[in-house]
Amino acid sequence: MIEYIINKLLSNPIYVGILLLLITFIAYSLVKKILKLIFFSIFILIAYIIYMSYSDKNAPEDFKELKESVSDNIEKLKTETTKSINKTKKDVKESLEKEIDKKIDKVLKK
Description:
- This protein is mainly alpha-helical.
- The chain has 2 domains: 1-59; 60-110.
- It has helices spanning 2-11, 13-54, 63-109.
- Helix 1 packs across helix 2.
């Protein structure tokens, strides 16, 4: 069955042309995506190096130092995010309680 389809595609020059065009488009889009990924990675690396030079921090010399630096920053981010979320919860709770009390007072006065 597959041999029949391949023979039909290869026997007609129009099908061969269409097949080559499809292969070219697929290859072009793959190369384009890979190049975008490479350029994005290079951009992030350059931005990181610029950040490190402006903040007067030394760039990690090996993977272990980089891993520790990233994990420390992630822990700081987690604690700050947790604090922010808890503060927001508290503020929303207080605001809702005030609004509920106002509505209850309004309903009871009627």
